[in-house]
Amino acid sequence: YIVGSFSCQYFAMRSQIIRSRIPFHHARSASSASSSTPVIEIREYKLSAGGAAKWVGMANDNMELRQRNLPLRSFTMPESGGILNVGTHVYYYGEGYEERNAKRRAQQALPEWKAYLAEANACVVEQKSTLWVEAPLVKEFDLKSLAPSAWPDDTESIEAESDETIYELRRYQLKLGYETVPKFLELYRTGLPSKLEAGNIDPSTSLATVLYTEVGSLNEVVELWRHGGGTAAMNRSRKAGRGADQWRKAISSIADLAVSFQATIHRPLEKSPWQ
């Protein structure tokens, strides 16, 4: 996990009720999101080495139960790039906090859900929940977004010899400051077209969404890429992107805003809505 370092002064500022001073076309401030602003929740469960297989099996077997109230999008396990055995599930609450609170209360009231958690939680070492919003550029560039309940079948674009589908999570921990995320997003949006249009991008590669933190380690940005052709598609697309001049210039400037960067490869569980 990426953990930011916060000063007492910054905590004091964040404890106030702060309205956004950032133009909408850049980004909304974390504390200004209205109750109707869609909220994405990423829940990460660090599992014991001995209990991971059991937990994954139970998660697959109870996927329909999980979705009875909860708007699950993806359920993945990391394969490389960081801590392993971390069940990672992503939820999209289109009506914001009120929807999240109501649906979680309804789910937690189900007797069968309580029984499931009683057994599954025995495999869990640590739990983490963070809340995010999608950057305005998701709509601007007509990216997939996390709003759809399922990813369309694109098997026709995947080469016969390819690996299974993977998701690539690219996390940027940025410096503190109110203007850091808007600056990042502006630089990102100026370079993104050249990357998306670069020659030799694998046809199965898609940028699903770009998120920034609402609650959690602040000033963190995540890119979520889907590579239908597996690691071969990821490597092909990465190589093509590095040759895009405007993207290279944007990343050079973004590097000055970042404290750290991490990329992890995830594979969806068998019954994850997004495959």
Give structural notes:
The structure is a single chain. By secondary structure, the chain is α+β, with helices and mostly antiparallel strands. It has nine helices and eight strands. The protein has helices at residues 8-14, 52-61, 63-66, 97-108, 111-120, 137-140, 180-196, 230-242, 245-254, and strands spanning 39-47, 72-80, 86-93, 124-134, 166-174, 205-215, 220-227, 258-268. The protein has an eight-stranded antiparallel β-barrel with strand order 1-3-2-8-5-7-6-4, surrounded by four helices. Helix 7 runs antiparallel to helix 9 (245-254). The longest helix has 17 residues, at 180-196. It is globular. The relative contact order is 0.19. The model is unreliable at 1-32 and 155-162 (pLDDT under 50).
SSE topology:
Blueprint: H1 8-14, E1 39-47, H2 52-61, H3 63-66, E2 72-80, E3 86-93, H4 97-108, H5 111-120, E4 124-134, H6 137-140, E5 166-174, H7 180-196, E6 205-215, E7 220-227, H8 230-242, H9 245-254, E8 258-268
Antiparallel strand pairs: 1-3, 1-4, 2-3, 2-8, 4-6, 5-7, 5-8, 6-7
